[in-house]
Amino acid sequence: MTVFAVTGSTGVVGGLVARGLAERDVPQLLVVRDPSRAPQLPGATVARAEYADTAAVTAALQGVEVVFMVSAAENEHRLDEHRSFVDGAVAAGVRHVVYTSFSAAAPDALFTLGRDHWATEQYLRGSGLTWTFLRDNLYSDFLPKLADPQGVIRGPAGDGRLAAVAQADVADMALAVLADPAEHRDTAYGLTGPESIGLAEAARMITELTGVATRYEPETVEEAYASRAVYGAPQWQLDAWVSTYTAIASGVLAPVSTDIPRVLGRPARSLRDVLTAR
Ligand SMILES: NC(=O)c1ccc[n+]([C@@H]2O[C@H](COP(=O)([O-])OP(=O)(O)OC[C@H]3O[C@@H](n4cnc5c(N)ncnc54)[C@H](OP(=O)(O)O)[C@@H]3O)[C@@H](O)[C@H]2O)c1
């Protein structure tokens, strides 16, 4: 029987994957930073390790064959943390890693964090492990959170469109891959919703389905940096925030992928589905 480990189970996507495995009676190791916050699941054991601690990751993953690796929280050192985690997985003898990457991962991705995802993919490709990349579009679940307290989604996205994906679909794809890792070996999937929409339309849908009045106001890039200056965030964070929108404007997040319907045998969840399920 394959031995699985799941990271990020204290968060949304990893939590859904961990619960999905438990529902399928699959034993698993939950690798978490804080065991007191790990979900209590039948068949699950818990180990403490954060990505940056290669020795702790190596110790935690002893005997594990397949790992679901959630990308780390956004921070300046995320790529180093990912490399450290992969090093620990290799040292522990893991065979396969399923990694949550980004739709437009590229060395020169407009969305600055897409560069870290690309570099992480490259590191995994060169690690000797086999891999599956789940290249997620922006999360549909995340779109309502783009609005400020006045219900305005502000940013330099122009009339660009995106094919946002449901976090539940990311988890379902992960579970499909974990059910047969060999079948999905060394494969990168594009994870999107079933349609490509602009932020004005997304705002209309959020208003209609959540009752929270929301609208989209395009900004120039200069206006976007200026309107975010009040937060006192470091430059990498500002660049990440603003480039989320410029990536949408560029059209790179617009293409709809057929990977979810092909692998899962059903349509991907739309933004409407996600907002209705809330
Ligand atoms: N495509 C998108 O729109 C989008 C949007 C936001 C984020 N993301 C990425 O997608 C990932 C998953 O999304 P999510 O909603 O499930 O995020 P989430 O709810 O914030 O969960 C992230 C999980 O990763 C764990 N984690 C983060 N950094 C870690 C580290 N350095 N070492 C060990 N564990 C770490 C967290 O543990 P703790 O509970 O200990 O913090 C948490 O369990 C995020 O981490 C982020 O990289 C994508």
Key words describing this protein structure:
two-stranded parallel sheet; seven-stranded parallel sheet; binds NADP nicotinamide-adenine-dinucleotide phosphate; 11 strands
How far apart the termini lie comes to: 36 Å
Largest β sheet strand count, sense and barrel closure: 7 strands, parallel
SSE string, helices as H and strands as E: EHEEHEHEHEEEHEEHEHHHH
Q: Cofactors and ligands present?
A: NADP nicotinamide-adenine-dinucleotide phosphate
The number of helical segments is 10
Quote the beta fraction.
15-25%
Sequence stretches where pLDDT stays below 50 over 5 or more residues: none
Tally of extended strands?
A: 11
Mean pLDDT: 97
Strand arrangement across the biggest beta sheet: 3-2-1-4-5-6-9
Shape: globular
Report on this structure.
Strand 5 (96-102), helix 4 (112-125) and strand 6 (130-136) form a beta-alpha-beta unit. The chain has helices at 12-23, 54-60, 78-92, 112-125, 167-179, 199-210, 221-228, 235-250, 259-264, 271-277, and strands spanning 4-7, 28-32, 44-48, 66-69, 96-102, 130-136, 152-155, 161-162, 187-191, 197-198, 215-218. With 278 residues, the chain is an alpha/beta fold. The strands form three sheets. Strands 3-2-1-4-5-6-9 form a seven-stranded parallel β-sheet, with helices on both faces. A two-stranded parallel ribbon has the order 7-11. A two-stranded antiparallel sheet has the order 8-10. Bound molecules: NADP nicotinamide-adenine-dinucleotide phosphate. NADP nicotinamide-adenine-dinucleotide phosphate is lined by residues 7-8, 10-14, 33-34, 50-51, 70-73, 81, 100, 136, 138-139, 142, 167.
